[in-house]
Amino acid sequence: MYNEKLIKKSVLRVGEVIEVSGRKIFIVIDKNKNTSDLLFNGEIVKNISVGSYIEIQKGFLSLIGKIDGEKIIEDTQQIYSANKIKRVIEISLIGYIDNGKFFGGTKEMPLIGNEAFIVTKEKNNIIHDLVDNKELFITIGNSDFDDANIKFPVDKLFNSHIAIFGNTGSGKSNTLASLYQHFIEKIKDIKENTKFVLFDFNGEYVSKSCITKDKFIYELSTDDNVSSEVKSGENETNISKSIVLKEEDLLNIEIFSILADATEKTQKPFLVRAINSYKKLTKQSNPDEYLKHALREILTIILTRKDETNSILIDFIISILPQNLNSITNMPSSLTQDITLSYGKYIFINDINKNDAKITSETAKNSILYNHINTLKFIEYNVFDRLLFVLKFQMINDIQNNRAQKDHIYPVINRLERLNDDLNKIIKFDNNTKINFWQKPFIIVNLKNVVNINIKKMIPLILAKKLYSEHKKDYANKILTIIIDEAHNILSSESFREAEDWKDFRLETFEEIIKEGRKFGVFLTIASQRPNDISDTIISQAHNYFIHRLINYKDLNTISSAVSYIDKLTSESIPTLPVGTCIFSGIATQLPLKINVFKLPDECEPKSKTIEFADLYKDLISSEGESEL
Predict the structure, then answer these.
(1) Considering the entire predicted model, what is its pTM?
(2) Residues 6+ apart with CB under 8 A from 246
(3) What is the pLDDT of residues 524-544, one digit of tens each?
(4) Could you give the dihedral angle defined by the CA atoms of residues 160, 163, 164 and 167, in that order, rounded to the nearest 10 degrees?
(5) Where are the domains of the chain?
(6) Which CATH number fits domain 151-237+437-616: 3.40.50.2300, 3.40.630.30, 3.30.70.100, 3.40.50.300?
(7) Which of 136, 267, 383, 433 fits a 20 to 30 Å CA distance from 427?
């Protein structure tokens, strides 16, 4: 036994400490240990190199360092030139092993003369051991250094905010899918008190076996010419083409301003007045009669006064009333066929030759338009049509009272009208029944075929805000995980397509979730190829990071400044990471780990694979494997 220890020590020893300068340690390498591999117990052992770990023995304590660099120095005491070169490595201490367990940080510094050794496979496993003996864990990859499988703790990982970054094709989508697929497989069945919602901007996760088969998909589309992302026969009973909301979910001035792209000083105050009018109207015992009475009063004022805005207001009143006149018994072909403008005021056509012709409050009731107001059935409109009606009614009221001008207000109504068809395709409103968004504990909201960019951004915002608010009301022993793929679409800190208040509102919403959500059991997972575009607050508040290859210097600077867990050497390796390899760092590990994430089976992987010309032109590839192009 004693001889075995001596042999092991002589083989694995690589040098000794010659200088200690703060956390930087310098070790001179034994001259017979400059090969790339060593033979030990019939196995080839990889020798130390830049980026690998090294063990320094100080008594019974094993200090663990990471090799940052190496250099050669001249040994002036040697006579022969072949022996004058000495190899010296520079290391940074990252932790220590005590009683068979690895601890990050610095407990003691080595002494000059302490021996340095190759880290054995057993001790490497101790360094990479992220879980306690009885802790629930998943395995999604192995160490890039020695191919040892790495166990990721379920706690500290999934009850945390997770950020996954990487350029297109670097493997980030596979990492996101692997995380939650292995987690769901581990727990075997998602309980009702654990819920997940994934906002999928590119339709990558909707296939039958991706992440989990037991999922519900909101397959949203505003383009009638686009076929479903879900193949026939896959999850057919677990798909909805629309999301059901309550009207209160839409009655938020910020949300409404976003949809309307409203200006801050003119159009947004108008929307505030309109929403307040809508709320007041819906509280009436008979909204139809309330509106009819208000419209009759306004129409009477218009018909009995002389004003240059009269014709504009009449046109607006006509536009909000039922238009299909032929379906109404005994109705004329035009609502204004019995009145006409004369010198800036309305008169009855039958009185056109009378010098004192005018319409009074009493005679206004005889007009076709006045009586047509009786056909109004506001209560039968859907929610968004009701809102549009109230917006136009508010505009009529504001113009009549000189509170607004048509040219300032109408564009915002026009923009909302253009969204009406798209919104009605993907959102249904129901205030009378108990709405159950959670058809399954795992929900995917597929936004790929939502063409309008404002609606595409609005849906995750409305849903995230709604689900977060509902969860906070009853969060005891419950967990909500919000997953956002291509997160730069809605978490960008800079955007030239939107108003400043819209940007502030959406960022404040998600920043509140990432800053306050943890105490309520709400956790955020984001994946993006452009970390530089995402709010610094959101990036810095994440607890665990999976960082794939990034090349853009702005993205790299963002990672370096926001992620305090990553050392310089690890940070510098990010641009050269192979596909599927990433740096894992955060509260779930005591030091950054370079891991190879296992590739999912074809039927389980996200639809993020790059299309290859070889697949498109298989018929042009000869039997010898050479292209005929």
Answers:
(1) 0.84
(2) 429, 430, 431, 435
(3) 999 999 999 888 888 988 999
(4) 180
(5) 2-128, 151-237+437-616, 253-428
(6) 3.40.50.300
(7) 267
